[in-house]
Amino acid sequence: MTDLKGEFLTKLLPEKDREAFFHFLERGNWLIFQDVYPQFLLYEESLKQNRPLFYLLPQLNVSIFMETIWNYFWKVRDTYMHCIALVVNEQSYLELRVVQNPHYQKEVLNKLEFHLQNWLSFNQILFPAEGENVKGQTLREFQSLHERILLGKKLYAVLFKNNDFHRQVLDWAKRHPHTGSRKDYWPHVFNDVHEGAPGIPYPLRLKSCRLRKGARRVYSPRLEHAWKNISQPEAEPGDWFQDLSVADYLADDLEMMDGEIKDEYCKTLERLEVAALAKKTISLLE
Predict the structure, then answer these.
(1) pTM above 0.70, yes or no
(2) How many angstroms separate the CA atoms of 182 and 221, rounded?
(3) Cβ-contact 66, 85 below 8 angstroms
(4) Side-chain half-sphere of 109: how many Cα atoms within 13 Å?
């Protein structure tokens, strides 16, 4: 979300499209939170009462799929299955409400700019750790429910199947309050204050995730400074669960994944900078 108000995408995308992208992302995040947060509140209350209360989940408009998963988890405590089930639920919940929603299809997903973003590989999910270390995965086909679920499984393998890296990520997160700015994890490249002067052209600054000598940092704002709070309409009713085959995703069929992504991420930043500079140059010549 903050990238939409950051230095590169403000040059690549018109304001109307950036607003549409924001509302697309915000709707998805809001839907996920309002679905999953009551589930964990109910789990917390179940622990207090020492008995499962998950029969109440349908009253909270939570899928029957998750009611089954929570009851199984209460008995077996299979943390892997439970986590992946949450991924399946989350992405399936969004499929008709957001990804296949005609409004977002027209205003976001079918736009050239969205495909440009895919081409630039700016759909990378990063886990920061100490020492500028990042690991993660790249989502190549956002509109594919299958690919989004597989991404969740791969991210689990990166984060939870490597105990040493998992500890590093937790330690880093405890010491770095999240602001939404990429400065949080790479302050040597990003700043949440714009260091440039409006209208003044700039040379290429990035090479292998390092600033060239004398170059200013890339602007990446904090979330609270980028977007105002907005209200959301109620979630669309209905249970996404229709097909038992989704249970196949729950198989623990991935080994630990290295998640090495730094070089790819560095190249993405360089491509974005080149694209933004080219767009700015063309605008000045028109």
Answers:
(1) yes
(2) 8
(3) yes
(4) 15
State the Rg of the chain over Cα: 21
Spatial neighbors of 218 by CB under 8 A, at least 6 apart, are 6, 7, 8, 182, 189, 190, 191, 205, 206, 269, 273
Please report, rounded to a whole number, the percentage of residues in the chain having pLDDT higher than 70.
Answer: 92
The pLDDT tens digits for 109-164 are 888 677 666 655 568 999 999 888 999 999 888 899 999 999 999 999 999 999 99
Q: In this structure, which amino acid lies at residue 239?
A: D
- Tokens linked to 168: 């590093």
Give the torsion through C-alpha atoms of 29, 32, 35, 41, to 10 deg: -80
Question: Which of 170, 224, 229, 249 is closest to 2 using CA atoms?
Answer: 224
The residues, ordered by sequence, that sit 6+ positions from 196 with a Cβ below 8 Å of its Cβ are 7, 202, 216, 219
C-alpha–C-alpha distance, residues 82 and 30, integer Å = 21
CA-to-CA distance for 165 and 5, rounded, in angstroms?
Answer: 31
In angstroms, the CA 249 to CA 54 distance is 22
219 close to 197: Cβ distance less than 8 angstroms: no
Evaluate whether 22 touches 4 at the Cβ level (below 8 Å): yes
- Give the span between the Cα atoms of 15 and 221, in whole angstroms: 16
CA dist 23 and 17 (Å) reads 10
Give per-residue pLDDT as tens, 237-259.
Answer: 999 999 999 999 999 998 999 99
